[in-house]
UniProtKB/TrEMBL annotation:
Coiled-coil region: none
Main subcellular localisation: membrane
Cellular component annotations (GO), alphabetically ordered: endoplasmic reticulum membrane; nuclear inner membrane
TM helices/strands, residue ranges: 33-51, 309-331, 374-394
Keyword S-adenosyl-L-methionine belongs to the record: no
Name assigned to this protein: TMM43 protein
Subcellular compartments: Endomembrane system; Endoplasmic reticulum membrane; Nucleus envelope
Gene Ontology process terms (BP): lipid metabolic process; nuclear membrane organization
Membrane topology: Multi-pass membrane protein
Taxonomic lineage from the root: Eukaryota, Metazoa, Chordata, Craniata, Vertebrata
Species assigned in the record: Tychaedon coryphoeus (Karoo scrub-robin)
Amino acid sequence: FQQFSDTGSSRKEHVKITSEPKPGFLERLSETSAGMLIGLVTFLLAFYLLFTNEGRALRTAKSLDEGLSLVVPLDSIHSISQQNEGRLVHLAGALSTSKPLFDPSYGLSIQAVKLKRKVEMYQWVEYEDSKEYEENGEIKKETKYSYDTEWKSEVVNSRNFDREIGHKNPSAMAVESFTAVSPNVQVGSFVLSKGLVDKIDDFKQLSLSHLEDPHADVTRGGDYFYHSDNPRRPEVGDLRVSFFYAGLSGDDPRLGSADKVTVIARQRGDQLIPYHTKSGDVLEILYPGDLSAEEVFQKEHESNTMKTWALRAAGWFSMFVGISLMTRIFYTLVDWFPVVRELVSVGLKAFAVCVASSLSLLTISAGWLFYRPLWALLLGLLSIVPILVARSRVPPKKQQ
């Protein structure tokens, strides 16, 4: 059955209680069996993730070392030398674009690599907080639903609300968000590839204080354009529009000088394109600011290390979840005995932590053996040294 109760006259919150018979032993066993299958898949994926991550990390590190040994710093970004054709080059300079980016609907233009229009709509948002408990042999679930109005950049589908009446949102926005990208981005005389342009993503909000209201039904307030009769008291369905830019590519009296970037890529004519290393990776690097080649590759090594450890942690967690799901059947078997059930639960969690940790370390070690056999051989030889030293110190037996 369902029980509803409203709190307050605004009808912004209500509680629903649902109940169902407590599942029998066979039903719980069936659910546990399905979980075991999911756990097995998760467990096996963890091995794949941990093992291949070591190869990826090594390949990336080798590619970065190769790139650092081959990179050629350019003497000038305003002249193209044929001697560097096909080579990995390093250059730094200010961004430039051929034409400014426009948004004619709001009378706005800027000389930048990217211009983003962000549209938000004032909408109802549903929050829920649930708790389960057992009563009279039934499993009851008490869910508290609360509603509030917020600015959201995505349409919130109110049809999925527990109670849509009084909390209905429009199904679409009258104005859409979009991002305009300059078709031609250069550093000096060199044209950046699409991959390099994609890396220019440090967006900053654009001040609208110098602009007038573009239409009679649009009001500027702060750094927003409001499609609202009263921006201070918006209603559901009202819109507000803000703008962001990335890669300032011309000197602007309000925003300052053009942004500088550092690029490492392959030179092909006046194009900067991806460089394929012998290790099988691709080097197409862009950082904001003026950096040396050594600083760029150091940052890339640090990024590779962080990614390696993040994937190792993800692999361990995946293995932990997989083991927990596969061993949950033991918890189900003693579910009728509360004291034993809690002890088994703690034991299973400790078991999952220990086994996941051990197997993760073994898998990572296997990855080292597979991808770094010379290092593994060296470590093996080093492990023999203490034994040899100990044997050499044993005095020879006296002749009888």
